[in-house]
Design goal:
Residues 1-28 form the signal peptide. This protein has one helix at 16-21; strands spanning 38-39, 47-55, 58-63, 69-73, 78-81, 88-90, 105-110, 121-130, 139-149, 152-161, 176-178, 184-188, 213-217, 239-242, 247-252, 259-263, 270-275, 316-318, 325-330, 343-347, 353-359, 362-368, 377-382, 388-392, 397-403. It is an all-beta fold. The longest helix has 6 residues, at 16-21.
C-alpha cells in the first residue's frame, strides 16, 4: 500500500548553486536540510577526452555487450558507433517521432540478456509519439523496442504509451532504467500541464493519468503484480510513484537497487530524489522552486516548499537558481580513486558535471566539476570499461570521457 513519510521541514532560502560561484554566503536552513550539503572543491579537477563528435543534439548513450555504442539524436536518428567512437552508421527501422520543442528521439537502453534472452540485442527507446485519429494533433511519451540485427531494428513494437497524449512539446521525462528484477522503470514528465498558480489542475497528482509519474513495467510493457496498490478508484496500476515534474536523470543505486532520479523544478528547485514504491513527491503542490515569472526568487517557493507530512522530501535541491539536471550515474568502478559509490549528475544550464557524495542515503557533499565548460551535459553513463561518459546536447554534440 502506498504510504508517506514525515520529512524535514524544508526552509530553503539560499542557493547551493550560488555557493558554488561565490563565498561568504550564509544559509538559515537547519544543518540537515538538503540545500545545506557541504560544498567541496577539494582534490584535483578532472578533464575530458573527446571520443566522438558531430551529433545533432544527441540525447542519450547506451552500450552494447561488445562495447559498441548507440547514440540517439533528438531529431530522430539513432547512430551505431564502434567501441573507439571512430566509425558510425545510422540505425534503420525507427518509427516516426515528433521532433519539436523538447520532443523527439530521447532515451535509449539495451535490455540485459537475462531479461530478454536471445542472440540479438534488444534495444528500448523513448520518443515523442504522434497521435492518430482523434489525437492527431497531440503527442506523448512512448516506449518502443526492437531487435538490433546489423544496422537495423527488427520486430519493432511500442510496449507502452503515456496516458493521455497532450498538446505542447515539453516535459517528456523519458529516462529508462532496468531494475534488478528485470522490470523497467520509465520516468514520465507532466507535459507542462501542471501550473502551481492554477489549483485544481494537478495532473501529476492524478492517478488516473501517467503525467508526472514513474511507471514500472515488465519487459513486454505489461504491469508487474507487485506494483504499488493504490486505494484511489481508477488509479493506473503501472504507476510506481507520483508528483514528479520532469525527471531527466535516473539511475539504480548499486547497493540497494533503488531508483534515484533528478528532476527539473520550475524557476529553481531542481531535485535529487530517492524513489520508493507508492510515494508522492509533491509536484505541483510543493516545490523549492518558484512559479515562473516570480521576481523574488530568493524568497518564494511553491506553497512554501514544505514537504511534511504528506510528501516525500527530496534528498537535495538546487535553489533558487536552476542547474537543469539531466543524466545520472553512480560510479561503480575504480578508475576514480576516492569517488567510489559517488553519484554524478549532468547539468544543462550549468554546463557542468556535479559529483555528489553520499552517506547512508544522505547527501553530504556536492562538487561542480569541469572548470572549463564543455557544453550542455544531457547524459551521463558508466561505461563497461569503468570510465564515465558524457553526452553534450549541442548542434555539434560530443561524446566525452571523464579523465582524472
Amino acid at each position: 500500500m502506498p504510504h508517506t513519510t514525515r520529512g524535514h521541514r524544508l526552509t530553503l532560502c539560499m542557493a547551493l548553486l550560488g555557493l558554488a560561484l561565490m563565498s561568504g554566503c550564509r544559509s538559515e536552513a537547519p544543518a540537515n536540510t538538503p540545500t545545506n550539503a557541504k560544498l567541496t572543491r577539494t582534490g584535483s579537477q578532472p578533464s575530458v577526452e573527446e571520443v566522438a563528435r558531430g551529433f545533432e543534439h544527441p540525447w542519450a548513450l547506451a552500450f552494447l555487450p561488445d562495447g559498441r555504442m548507440l547514440v540517439s539524436e533528438r531529431g530522430g536518428r539513432l547512430w551505431l558507433l564502434s567501441a573507439d567512437g571512430q566509425q558510425r552508421q545510422p540505425v534503420r527501422g525507427l518509427p516516426p517521432v515528433v521532433a519539436r520543442g523538447q520532443g523527439g528521439l530521447l532515451d535509449v537502453s539495451v535490455a540485459p540478456t537475462s531479461v530478454v534472452p536471445g542472440a540479438d540485442s534488444w534495444v528500448y527507446w523513448t520518443y515523442s509519439e504522434p497521435g492518430t485519429g482523434a489525437e492527431a494533433r497531440l503527442q506523448g511519451t512512448a516506449v518502443a523496442r526492437g531487435r538490433l540485427v546489423g544496422d537495423e531494428l527488427l520486430d519493432v513494437q511500442v510496449v507502452y504509451r503515456q496516458v493521455p497524449k497532450t498538446s505542447g512539446h515539453g516535459h517528456y521525462g523519458s529516462r529508462l532504467v532496468w531494475g534488478r528484477d528485470g522490470h523497467l522503470f520509465v520516468t514520465l514528465g507532466d507535459r507542462q500541464r501542471d501550473d502551481p498558480s492554477r489549483p485544481g489542475r494537478e495532473h501529476a497528482q492524478n492517478l488516473g493519468t501517467t503525467l508526472g509519474k514513474v511507471v514500472r513495467l515488465r519487459a513486454d510493457g505489461t504491469v508487474p503484480a507487485d506494483n504499488p496498490r493504490w486505494p484511489t478508484p481508477g488509479a493506473r496500476p503501472e504507476v510506481y510513484s507520483l508528483g514528479h515534474r520532469n525527471a531527466q536523470g535516473a539511475a539504480l543505486h548499486p547497493d540497494t537497487g533503488e531508483l534515484w532520479l533528478t528532476e527539473h523544478g520550475p524557476q529553481g528547485g531542481d531535485e535529487l530524489n530517492r524513489v520508493l514504491p507508492g510515494r508522492n513527491h509533491g509536484w505541483p503542490l510543493v516545490s523549492a522552486g518558484c512559479p515562473y515569472g516570480s521576481p523574488e526568487v530568493h524568497t518564494c517557493q511553491v506553497n512554501g516548499g514544505h514537504h511534511e507530512p504528506d510528501f516525500e522530501p527530496p534528498l537535495s535541491v538546487w535553489a533558487p537558481y536552476s542547474t537543469a539536471p539531466s543524466g545520472l550515474a553512480f560510479n561503480t568502478a575504480k578508475r576514480y580513486p576516492g569517488w567510489e559509490g559517488h553519484l554524478f549528475s549532468g547539468s544543462l544550464s550549468g554546463e557542468t558535471l556535479w559529483r555528489i557524495e553520499l552517506k547512508d542515503h544522505q547527501v553530504v557533499a556536492r562538487q561542480p566539476l569541469l572548470e572549463r565548460k564543455v557544453g550542455r551535459i544531457r547524459d551521463v553513463r558508466m561505461g563497461p570499461d569503468g570510465w564515465l561518459y558524457l553526452v553534450t546536447d549541442e548542434e555539434d554534440g560530443r561524446i566525452l570521457r571523464l579523465v582524472r
